[in-house]
Amino acid sequence: MTRSSPIPDNYPQRYQLHNEVHARPFIALRSPERATHLAILLNAEQKAREPQILAALCERYVHLPPSADADHFNADFGTFRLRWERHTEFSTYTFYVRGPFNDPFVKPALESVPADWLKTLPGQVIMAAHAGIQKVERDMPSIDAIAPLFEGSTLVASEVAGGAALACTDFRIHADGFSRFLIYDKGLWSRQAGRLLQRVFEIEVYRMMALRALPVARELMPRLSTGEQKLLDITTAMAEPERNDQELLEELVALAANVEKSVSSTHFRFNAAETYYRLVGWRIDELREKRIEGIQTFREFMERRLEPAMHTCQSVAKRQILLSDRVTHASQLLRTRVEITMEKQNQALLESMDKRARLQLQLQETVEGLSIAAISYYVAGLIGYLAKAGKAAGLPLQPELVVGISIPVVVVLIAFGVRRIRKMVEKK
Predict the structure, then answer these.
(1) Cis peptide before 408, with omega less than 30 degrees from 0?
(2) Are 284 and 299 a contacting pair, CB within 8 Å?
């Protein structure tokens, strides 16, 4: 349909931005359904290979593959369905199989996926889970009836979606290497069921991604203690007058370099952990949990198990930034003191040079005066000899009188000549 009225040209990314809210639609699920979810950490080279790997699967099932720049893809291959999503640090693969089951974990959805193709998936698994959605016609099953499906582990469960479903897990990795989730559907719409299962998977993925910062924080703690003690030693030494400020400054610069290297190498991981932790909270909010008496909810589990770990990461991150700031402040103080000391030394040197220059000038003037006197003496002597020679030749001259009269003139002329020569030398 053409526009009825003329308007300015579209912003180049108008349609892309508008359609973003419709991207990554949830898969419609109709109970009973089994699903397997994989979250895989990837580097840049491995991410570049994903389109070819997906295309190989599509070719096997004669399905149109995703575009090379796609960041999500849904496909129905008949025996199973696939939902693929690319994120900043990882990609997720969710496989769905529809059909009745007694135990969704005995024959999970992943068994319907070609094993040889699964072996081609690149990267490292950070989260793997099997799940099942079971239809409930009347009352929800009791927790005691559900527990055997989780091998007797303590369950985390709650009514979700306003009481339309019951979500259960134990947040454990079982012997097969997979976590387990079970949803009992009492009145979910198909899209609502797909969204609920997706959110449950995302809670576990984001929890694991957030916890990636915990080993970093634990490794960093003793290094921070060492750095803090080193800073304390340096600042204590700064108060000792006999210590060399230049040496202390060099130690501070080395400490600052180590701290900044640590900040640079951990900044992304700690910031990412904060983001993933917030996402966990948002996904739990979307569950709209209702507590079951005597059973931990998803939120309570995270508050007791994930929150302390995140507080540790936050504390270490803040402690590291504080150490960096303290090192910077101490460096500025010591650098200022070193600069003041150098300025005093330079001032003393300038004063010494000025004094030497004045002495040199005085000596020069003294030598200059002596030179004028000596030259005048010899010139006057020459004039005396000339006067005596003239008298001997019969000229009416008195040599002593001639010498006496010539001395002032000679001194003035020689002084003028010496000063002119000095100015010419200084000018050059």
Answers:
(1) no
(2) yes
pLDDT (tens, 9 = 90+) of the chain, 428 residues, equals 455 678 888 888 887 777 776 667 788 899 999 999 999 999 999 999 999 999 999 999 999 999 988 999 999 999 999 999 999 999 999 999 999 998 999 999 999 999 999 999 999 999 999 999 999 988 888 988 999 999 988 999 999 999 999 999 999 999 999 999 999 999 999 999 999 999 999 999 999 999 999 999 999 999 999 999 999 999 998 888 777 888 888 899 999 999 999 999 999 999 999 999 999 999 999 999 999 999 999 999 999 999 999 999 999 999 999 999 999 999 888 888 877 778 888 888 888 888 888 888 777 777 777 777 778 778 877 887 787 877 777 777 787 777 788 788 877 887 787 777 777 776 76
Task: Compute the C-alpha angle 347/351/356, nearest 5°.
Answer: 145
Q: Is 213 helix (H, G, I), strand (E, B) or coil?
A: helix
Q: Angle 86-305-90 (CA atoms, 0-180°, nearest 5)?
A: 10
Contact criterion met (CB below 8 Å) for 144 and 114:
no
Give, in degrees to the nearest 5, the angle at Cα 16 between 12 and 18: 110
Nearest to 131 by CA among 148, 108, 114, 153: 108
CA atoms within 13 A on the CB side of 69: 0
Q: Which of 426, 424, 417, 227 is nearest to 323 (CA)?
A: 227
> CA–CA separation, 254 vs 243, rounded Å?
18
**CA 331 vs CA 65, 152, 226, 234, 256: distances in Å:** 58, 58, 18, 10, 8
CB 79 within 8 A of CB 99: no
Q: How many of the other CB atoms lie within 10 Å of CB of 270?
A: 20
Provide CB contacts within 8 A for 371, sequence distance 6+. 418
